[in-house]
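Notebook entry, structure prediction.
Reason for the run: the old model in the group folder had no record of what sequence produced it. Starting over properly, with the input documented here first.
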Amino acid sequence: MTNSPEETTRDSSRESTTTETGGATFERIVEPRSENRLALEGGVWHQISPKYVTVQLISTGSFLVIVIAATLVLTLLMHQLWAWIPGGILTVILAWTLAILPRQARSIGYQLRADDLVFRRGILWQRFVAVPYGRMQLIDITHGPLDRGFGIAQLKFVTAAAATGVVIPGLEQSTAETLRDHLVEVAEARRTGL
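New structure, fully documented this time:
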C-alpha cells in the first residue's frame, strides 16, 4: 500500500499539477512569510483543485450581488437610510473575502503519512490537524449542485474527538473517491492491527 492515492506529473508551462485521473491541483502549497509560522515538514503535500476557487468566487460573488441589490432597494426605493450601514459592512467583508480567496485556497493541503493524515489550511490563522488512521470512524464525500457542475467534492473525516474533524474542500471527484477508498482500507487495517 502506497501513501499516495494518485500520481502527479509536473508541467512547467502551467501553474497546476495534473493527476493521472485528469484533474488539476495547485503547483505548490502557500506558506505564511513570518519566521514564527508553523513550518511544513517534508513529504508530499497534495493540494485541492483550482476549480474550488471558481466555485467559491461564484457563490460569494452571487451573495455580494444580492447584498448590494438589497441595500440599493432598501435605501433608494424604500428610503431606509439605515440599510447603508449593514450593507456597507457586508460589502466590505465579502469584497475582502473575494480578494483573499485564491491565496487562501492555495494554502489548503493534506499529507498522507505512515500513521496519520495531516491537514493544513490558513495563512493568518493556520491550522494543522493530524488524524490517525485508526481513529477515523467515518469518511464522507459531499458536494452541492455547484460543486457537481465543476466536478469537485468535499471529503470529511469524523473521529471520536469532535475537535479533530477535518473537511478537505475542493477535491476532484475522482480524487475524493480514490482517497476515501484508500483511507477506509488503511483505517480498517489499523483498527484490526494488521
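Summary: Residues 51-77 form the longest helix (27 residues).
The old model has been moved to the deprecated folder.
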